[in-house]
TrEMBL record:
Keyword Cytoplasm part of the UniProt annotation: yes
PANTHER family registered for this protein in UniProt: NUCLEAR MIGRATION PROTEIN NUDC, NUCLEAR MOVEMENT PROTEIN NUDC
Superkingdom assignment: Eukaryota
Name of this protein: Nuclear movement protein nudC
Function of the molecule: Required for nuclear movement. May interact between microtubules and nuclei and/or may be involved in the generation of force used to move nuclei during interphase.
GO molecular function: unfolded protein binding
Keyword check for Cytoplasm: yes
Region ranges (Disordered): 1-29
The entry's keywords: Cytoplasm
Ranges for domain CS: 28-117
Compositional bias per record (Basic and acidic residues), positions renumbered to this chain: 1-26
Length: 190
């Protein structure tokens, strides 16, 4: 937040945010394509004249650059990508002979893009609200971590021990069983 924004009243800040959103929407609408993104991918749609076939389209995708146009005409998109992509996992298709769809797989799947091509207007990535994901969408390791966090949160709310505390208690019980000769009556567990 800039020093100027800190002095705005709530109403002034809301008006500024609304103006920023409207300006951003107008800049994005002026582009010759529409685009959306998720953390791991970017999808671009470029409308082309009805009847356009794959042989009429020229698309060049490298890890740093994207170019798309129709044979015999100026490029519709041409420039440096704002971030690197995985070329071998990026594709393009034509839908209904009227739209070219370009799918780009981000190299860094933990970063929002401000724009597709570096010379195009930027969006405010701090305002992006990602869609909720389902546990089933996550990879095994991430899913296990999220499930553990959810279990621990539920346990804390009910005043019960967390998974880590349960493991410690189980380890202590095993140790007690293995060493019946020791007296644990005065032991304090932390």
């Amino acid at each position: 937040m800039s020093e100027e924004e800190k002095t705005f009243s709530k109403d002034e800040q809301e008006a500024k945010d609304r103006d920023d959103r409207e300006r951003e929407a107008a800049e994005q609408a002026a582009l010759p394509y529409t685009w959306k993104q998720e953390l791991g991918e970017v999808d671009i749609v470029i409308l082309v004249p009805k009847g356009t076939r794959a042989r009429d389209v020229i698309v060049a995708i490298t890890k740093n650059e994207l170019s798309m146009g129709l044979k015999g005409k100026d490029r519709i998109m041409d420039g440096q990508l704002c971030k690197e992509i995985k070329v071998e996992e990026s594709t393009w298709t034509i839908e209904d002979q009227s739209a070219v769809h370009i799918h780009l797989e981000k190299l860094n799947k933990q970063q929002w893009w401000e724009n597709v091509l570096t010379h195009h207007p930027k969006i405010d990535t701090t305002k992006i609200q990602p869609e909720n994901s389902k546990l089933s969408d996550l990879d095994g390791e991430t899913r296990a971590m999220v499930e553990k966090m959810m279990f621990d949160q539920q346990q804390k709310q009910m005043g019960k021990p967390t998974s880590d505390e349960i493991k410690k208690m189980e380890a202590l019980e095993k140790f007690k069983a293995a060493h019946p000769e020791l007296d644990f009556s005065q032991a304090k567990v932390s």
